[in-house]
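Exercise 3.2. Students should predict the tertiary structure of the chain below and write it as structure tokens, then compare their answer with the key that follows.

Predict this chain's 3D structure.
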Amino acid sequence: VTLTDNVSDEGQLSYRIGAAGSTYYFQKQAGGLSSLVDASNNDWINFHPTPWTSAGGGYRGIPNVYANGIFHPGWTTGTSSIVSQGPLKIRVRSVTNNGLWESLWDFYPGYATNTIVKAGGTYWWLYEGTPGGSLDQNTDFMVRSDNRKTMLSVRTNDDIPTDEWVYFSDPNVNRSLFVSHHEDDSLIDEYHPMTDT
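Answer key:
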């Protein structure tokens, strides 16, 4: 796992973290991922600050946990620091300017984990991005832990069963993004395409 500091990504200084064929761009003042680039140079997030209020730009990011820019690319609501760095793991800590929110990211070869250490209220965890670099609702799909496969044109709005995971796939690039919540809950897990972008 490699780290390059102070790389500009979409208008903000970022950490660039290379990990087994993937490159993460983590905006330091935002405390969130603005880009996740695969080995074929496809950006699975594709955040852009313009247009700001658009599914094709400013809405994108990971994890986008709360309104008013908490851990959301493009915002300047906090600070981030490197807690530890080694060949197998990089840990990033982000804290909001008001001190109410804290997040830890751990980047490993092949995957990353995010832990919300301190929450200033109830929150969500969002993947707002572009599977394979662009959203194609006719071919891109998701598979949930109960083996239910749906095209990304289909809205879902229910609780994912016991093992709370889902992966988003783009068959044109033959890759997927796997997202897992390690604790079971009875909360509603929602997916919907905001537009066709």
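Discussion points: The chain has a mean pLDDT of 93. The chain has two domains: 2-118, 131-191.
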